[in-house]
Please model this.
Amino acid sequence: MKLIQVKDYQEMSQKAADIVIEKVKTNPQIQLGLATGGTPEGLYDRLIADHKENHTSYEQVKSFNLDEYIGLSSTNPNSYHYYMAHTLFNHIDINQEDTNLPNGTAENIQEECVRYDEMIDKMGGIDLQILGIGQNGHIGFNEPGTSFASKTQVVDLAQSTIEANARYFNSIDEVPTQAVTMGIASIMKSKEIILLVSGVAKSEALKQLIDGDITEEFPASILKNHQNVTIIADQDALSKVH
Ligand code: F6R
Model:
C-alpha cells in the first residue's frame, strides 16, 4: 500500500480529485467504483468544479457504487441513489444509464446481488475504486467478520455503523438495518484502489490498517494483499500512526 500524507480534508480531496481527473483524461472510458458518505464529498465537489471550469468529460465513463440501503427507493433523500445523483451525477456529463448502484428495493434481492457482480464482470471490471473506511474497518458495508471471499451480498449493519450514519436521518430509528454491498472479493477485483481517510475519528482504524494483521475481523486489512492501493490520509487520521 502506498501512503500519501496530506494536511487536512481539503488537501485529501484535492489530491484525490487530481488523480481521478488525470485518469479520466488519460482513459475517457474509465470504469469508476464510487463510494458515498462524508469522506468523498470534497472529492466530488472538486470533480464538479473542474468539469465546469475545464470541461473534463465523463460522457464515456461508467460508474459502479459500492452499496445501497435495503428498502430505500432512489427518490428517498437518504438513499445512495439520491446521494450520488445530487452530490455528483447531476452536475457532470455522465450518462445516467452508465451509473450503477445496487437496487435496494429489488423484489428478489439475492438475484440482484448476483446480477450486480455479473454486470461489473461483463463490463470488464472496475479500473479505479474509491473507498472510505468505517471506524470498525468496514469497506463498502462489509462489517467485521465478513468473509474475504464474499461477493455482492445483503448485510446487517453494525450498531456502530447505524450510529455513525444516523447523522443523515431524522432519528436513529429511521436508519435501515440492512444494506446491499459489493463483497470484499468484488472490491478486491478492482484494478486500482484509492482509500480516503480523514479525521481523528478514523485514526484508530488507520493505525490498525497500517500496523495490524490481515484478518476478517478488520475488513480493510485485506487491502494489504492488493497490488495497487493508495491511501490518502490527513494529519488527524494519521495522528495515531507512528
Ligand atoms: C459508503 C461506504 C462506506 C463508507 C464508510 C465511511 O459507500 O461504502 O464504507 O465509506 O462508512 O463513511 P464516511 O465517509 O461517512 O465516514
